[in-house]
Design goal:
It is a single chain. This protein is mainly β. The chain has one domain (22-173): Jelly Rolls. 10% of the residues lie in helices and 55% in strands. The protein has 1 helix and 14 strands, in the order H-E-E-E-E-E-E-E-E-E-E-E-E-E-E. Strands 1, 2, 3, 4, 5, 6, 7, 8, 9, 10, 11, 12, 13 and 14 form a 14-stranded mixed sheet that branches. Strand 10 and strand 11 form a beta hairpin. The longest helix is centred in the N-terminal third of the chain and has 18 residues, at 2-19. The radius of gyration is 21 Å and the shape is globular.
C-alpha cells in the first residue's frame, strides 16, 4: 500500500509540473492560397528551386521568385496576408510563431515575420490580433517598413528606388 501511495504521488507531481510548460516555437512555414503562372521557391545560395504548389512548405531562408504575369497569394504568418506580383522576388528571413506550452489552450503568444523584397511588388494586408505581440517587417532597398495597425499597403522596388503606398491604416517607414 505504501508503494502505491508513493507511486501515485510521483505520478501526480510529474503531471502537475508538466501541465504549465514553457512556450514552444514550432517550425513555421507560409501557407499558399493560390498560384497563377510560374512561381518558384528554394535555396538561392544553392540555386535549388522548385515550383510552388498549394502544399509547398516555404520557410525561413527560402527565396520566392515569380515570373512576368505570375502572382502568388500566401499567408506568411497568421494575420499577414500577401500577394507577390509578377517579376518579383522575396527572401524570407524569419517566420516564427510562439505558442503557449499548454496544449489544451492552444493560444499563440507571439508571431514574427521578416521578409526582404529584392525586386517587384508585394501587397500586404496586416491584421494584428488583440492582446497578441505581432511583428511584421519588410525590407526593400534601404527602407524598413513596419505596419502599425490594421493596414493594407503595397511596396514596390526595382532594387534602387522603392515606393510604399498605404491605403488603410498606418505604417512606419524608416
Amino acid at each position: 500500500m505504501r508503494h502505491l501511495v508513493i507511486a501515485a504521488s510521483i505520478a501526480i507531481c510529474s503531471l502537475l509540473s508538466n501541465a504549465c510548460s514553457k512556450s514552444i516555437i514550432p517550425a513555421t512555414s507560409a501557407t499558399v492560397f493560390s498560384i497563377r503562372g510560374k512561381v518558384l521557391f528554394g535555396n538561392a545560395q544553392q540555386n535549388d528551386f522548385q515550383p510552388v504548389t498549394l502544399k509547398s512548405r516555404i520557410h525561413d531562408g527560402y527565396t520566392v521568385r515569380s515570373s512576368g504575369g505570375a502572382s502568388l497569394d500566401l499567408a506568411l504568418i497568421p494575420g499577414a496576408l500577401t500577394q507577390l506580383s509578377g517579376d518579383s522576388e522575396i527572401d524570407i528571413e524569419e517566420l516564427k510563431i510562439t505558442k503557449d506550452g499548454n496544449e489544451t489552450a492552444g493560444g499563440m503568444r507571439d508571431r514574427t515575420g521578416r521578409i526582404r523584397l529584392n525586386r517587384g511588388k508585394i501587397i500586404v494586408l496586416f491584421i494584428p490580433s488583440d492582446g497578441l505581440a505581432s511583428q511584421f517587417v519588410i525590407t526593400a532597398s534601404e527602407l524598413t517598413i513596419k505596419p502599425d495597425s490594421d493596414c493594407l499597403f503595397c511596396v514596390r522596388t526595382d532594387g534602387k528606388t522603392t515606393r510604399v503606398t498605404c491605403t488603410k491604416g498606418n505604417i512606419n517607414v524608416s
